[in-house]
Design goal:
- This protein is α/β, with parallel strands linked by helices and about 260 residues long.
- The chain has a domain at about 50-225: Thiamin diphosphate (ThDP)-binding fold, Pyr/PP domains (Rossmann fold), CATH 3.40.50.
- The chain is built from ten helices and six strands.
- The protein has helices at about 10-20, 25-40, 55-65, 75-85, 105-115, 125-130, 135-140, 160-165, 185-190, 205-210; strands at about 70, 95, 120-125, 150-155, 195-200, 220-225.
- It has a six-stranded parallel beta sheet, with helices on both faces.
- Strand 1 (about 70), helix 4 (about 75-85) and strand 2 form a beta-alpha-beta unit.
- Helix 3 packs across helix 4 (about 75-85) and helix 3 packs across helix 10 (about 205-210).
- The longest helix is centred in the N-terminal third of the chain and has 13 residues, at about 10-20.
- It is globular.
- The N and C termini lie far apart (about 50 Å).
Length: about 260
């Protein structure tokens, strides 16, 4: 049944909210959500000798107590930020959403830092997206913006690689950046930005403490994370929620 509603949207939405507030909980729908949570819990390999992006984001959440403005770029880390950072406030995750705008994080974080002064502003990028707009670091340096720039460096275009593994029979094309990536710490040092780098889980606490102690200028931390992790759940292009994928396909039986 379709019912047209004509009127001022502000008043109509308020009236609709009043009507909805007294409605009983949709038990069937919530039961379905709980089943999804049980079938696909948020989890990753731990303990593990590899540094995982999920672990780093959990630690960032812990250090900032959920109070930061997180500006994510595009890719797997974007999904993991939504999953593992425990936000205390709405409108705190700045993201290009489904537009796939690689390179978004650095300039967007600069914009956020100009207007947000009472909360930490954190830019989280992959190694691919970071290179698309890293010249904008000059603006952060010039204005002494206290942005924390975090690179999740897995030496891949991680999300593109994930699609190639899951939907294109592991036919990898132009996603391996291992031999072409620059030394990020040297690049930002040339711009006058202090930098840190680690690949060890046991060093994450110390590295983050050093980064958050710098509050009068930008700082960069490179986290060299596991190369072939996949982010789940995900819905294939053109699919629906019922087509959701929640585990890795591994037809060749290779250990990843």
């Amino acid at each position: 049944m379709d019912l047209p509603i004509v009127g001022d949207a502000k008043r109509i939405m308020g009236d609709l909210l009043e009507e909805l507030s007294d409605k009983p909980r949709e038990e069937k729908w919530w039961k379905q959500i709980e089943e999804w949570k049980e079938a696909c819990p948020l989890e990753y390999k731990r303990p593990d000798n590899q540094l995982r992006t999920q672990y780093v984001i959990e630690k960032i959440s812990e250090k900032t107590k959920g109070e930061a403005i997180i500006v994510s770029d595009v890719g797997q880390h974007q999904m993991w930020v939504a999953q593992y950072y425990k936000f205390n406030h709405p409108r705190s995750h700045v993201s290009s959403g489904g537009l796939g705008t690689m390179g978004f994080s650095i300039p967007a974080a600069v914009g956020a830092a100009f207007s947000i002064k009472d909360r930490p502003v954190i830019s989280i990028s992959g190694d691919g997206g970071f290179q698309m707009n890293m010249q904008e670091l000059i603006t952060a340096v010039y204005h002494k913006l206290p942005i924390k720039f975090f690179i999740m460096n897995n030496c891949f275009l991680g999300m593109v690689r994930q699609w190639q593994e899951l939907f294109h029979e592991e036919k990898y094309s132009f996603t391996d950046l291992c031999d072409s990536n620059p030394i990020f710490t040297k690049i930002v040092t040339a711009l006058g930005i202090e930098s840190l780098s680690t690949y060890k889980p046991e060093e994450v606490d110390e590295v983050l403490d050093k980064a958050f102690a710098i509050n009068d200028r930008p700082v960069l931390v490179e986290f060299k994370v596991a190369k072939e992790d996949l982010v789940f759940p995900m819905v294939p292009s053109g699919g629906s929620i019922s087509d959701m994928i929640h585990k890795r396909k591994n037809p060749k039986g290779k250990k990843l």
